[in-house]
C-alpha cells in the first residue's frame, strides 16, 4: 500500500482544500531535479483503533479489513489499498483511500461484535506529506532524531516521532517516507521541508 498510495497523489475534490494545498507548486518545483520528491496526499481515511491484540476481536478485525494487525512494535502491514500502522501495544492506525472511512468503521465495529474496542475516525486530523527520492533521508535528518538508515528504519517501519518540533507519524516506504502530520501543523512542516531541501534541490 505504501507505494500505491505514494504514487497516487490525488487532486482535491471540489469544495475541499487540503491543509498543504498552497504548497503544491513549490513542492513540484523542489521535485524537478529528480533527487527529491515532495508532495501531499490529501484526504486519506485514517481510523484510530484500540483493542487487546490477544483478543478474538483483534483477529476478527484483521480478517474483516483484509490486513492482520501488526504486533511487532514500529511495523506496518498492508493489503490491497489499506495499511495498518502499529502505534502502541494496543493501538493502530488504519489508513485507506479517500472516502473509505465510514466503511472501515462499520467493518471494524461489526467485527468487534460487542467486545471492548475503540474505533475513532481521525481522517480530518491529519494530512500526509511525501518525502521521496535519494535525498529524502538527508532532508529529514535535519530535524528528526531517529536513525533513518535503511537497516534501522527501512520499508515496513513506522514511528511516532518529532520532526522540527512537530509531532508526526513517520512511515518508511520503498522510495522514501510519508509524514502523517496534524492539519494545524501542515503548513509549518511543509515550509520546513522546503527550507531543509534547498541545498539538495540546488545540487540536484
Automatic annotation (TrEMBL):
Source taxon at top rank: Bacteria
InterPro entries: SoxG, TrmE/GcvT-like
Name listed for the protein in its UniProt record: Sarcosine oxidase subunit gamma
Organism the protein comes from: Microbispora siamensis
Source taxonomy: Bacteria, Bacillati, Actinomycetota, Actinomycetes, Streptosporangiales
Gene this chain is encoded by: soxG
Amino acid at each position: 500500500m505504501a507505494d500505491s498510495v505514494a504514487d497516487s497523489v490525488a487532486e482535491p475534490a471540489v469544495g475541499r482544500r487540503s491543509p498543504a494545498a498552497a504548497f503544491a507548486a513549490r513542492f513540484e518545483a523542489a521535485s524537478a531535479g529528480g533527487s527529491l520528491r515532495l508532495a501531499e496526499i490529501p484526504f486519506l481515511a485514517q481510523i484510530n483503533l484500540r483493542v487487546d491484540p490477544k483478543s478474538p476481536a483483534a483477529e476478527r478485525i484483521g480478517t474483516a479489513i483484509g490486513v492482520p494487525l501488526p504486533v511487532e512494535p514500529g511495523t506496518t502491514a498492508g493489503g490491497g489499498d489499506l495499511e495498518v500502522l502499529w502505534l502502541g501495544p494496543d493501538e493502530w492506525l488504519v489508513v485507506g483511500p479517500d472516502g473509505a472511512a465510514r466503511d472501515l468503521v462499520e467493518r471494524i465495529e461489526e467485527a468487534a461484535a460487542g467486545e471492548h474496542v475503540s474505533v475513532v475516525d481521525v481522517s480530518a486530523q491529519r494530512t500526509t506529506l511525501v518525502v521521496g527520492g535519494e535525498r529524502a533521508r538527508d532532508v529529514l535528518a535535519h530535524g528528526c532524531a531517529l536513525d533513518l538508515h535503511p537497516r534501522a528504519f527501512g520499508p515496513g517501519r513506522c514511528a511516532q516521532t518529532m520532526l522540527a518540533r512537530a509531532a508526526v507519524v513517520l512511515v518508511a516506504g520503498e522510495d522514501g517516507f510519508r509524514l502523517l502530520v496534524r492539519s494545524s501543523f501542515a503548513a509549518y512542516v511543509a515550509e520546513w521541508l522546503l527550507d531543509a531541501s534547498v541545498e539538495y534541490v540546488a545540487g540536484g
